Predict the structure.
Amino acid sequence: MAGKLYLVATPIGNLEDITLRALKVLKEVDLIAAEDTRHTLGLLNHFGISKPLISYYKQNERAKSETLIKQLLAGKNVAVVSDAGTPGISDPGEEIVKNAIENGVEVVPIPGACALVNALIVSGLSTKEFCFIGFLSAVKKEKREKLEQIKYETKTLILYEAPHKLKATLESILEILGDRNIVLAREITKIHEEFIRDKVSNILQNINEIKGEFVLLIEGSLESKSDIKRRKINELTLDEHYEFYKKQNYSKKEIIKQIAKDRNVNKNEIYQCFLDK
Ligand code: SAM
């Protein structure tokens, strides 16, 4: 019978955040696949656990998945851990999970710390709906394209960011998304844990003093793309509205239909206004 694949969350700072179940699974599995074996060895030593470790990081994820699947199919139970938090969240994990599912291996989540969730729940921003972006690309053009893409997203936006890139990222956010309310969730669960809530521009003024690990949360856009379109259309006169679609080569019939739809009125009403067109 095949073994089970456990995705085990580990602390993001404070070691007391490991769960009893995570410790039990780490003690009982045959093998632990770790993003950085030296880092995980420190964690295991702290809790008096001794287990064979195999390295499993982004660059060798695919090849190591094959090796691990063979072990699982041979009946071994395997735990995957990352350096901190929940595996698979901006960390290795996705590849082996897909591979395990394809091979009929049972995959079991062992819940625990995750920086984005803990940053969100104390942010003071809307927790009803959120959009996790992960790390923005290090390539400037791709980073800007992503920000343009999420500009009108009304959900709370959550990013991971390295400290040395924070200033440049905040400058791009200010330029593309505007001076929004943001939250920097710094060093969560660690000694210097801090939550900085302010406008992007104010935070940028004090940026030199900010150090450590961060989650960056951004208030969602107050208007969606369709809200903005609707508002802009409502600001047009009927004639301007007609011209707007005419310039896009719509037929008279299509224009009337579209105007009626935009303004949420009956088509005939609009038709009467443009009898002479
Ligand atoms: N898998 C992890 C999780 O569940 O959150 C995330 C790993 S990702 C490689 C590392 C990033 O997570 C950091 O650059 C930072 O943005 C965020 N992060 C991790 N630990 C954090 C902490 N204690 N405080 C604030 N942000 C943290």
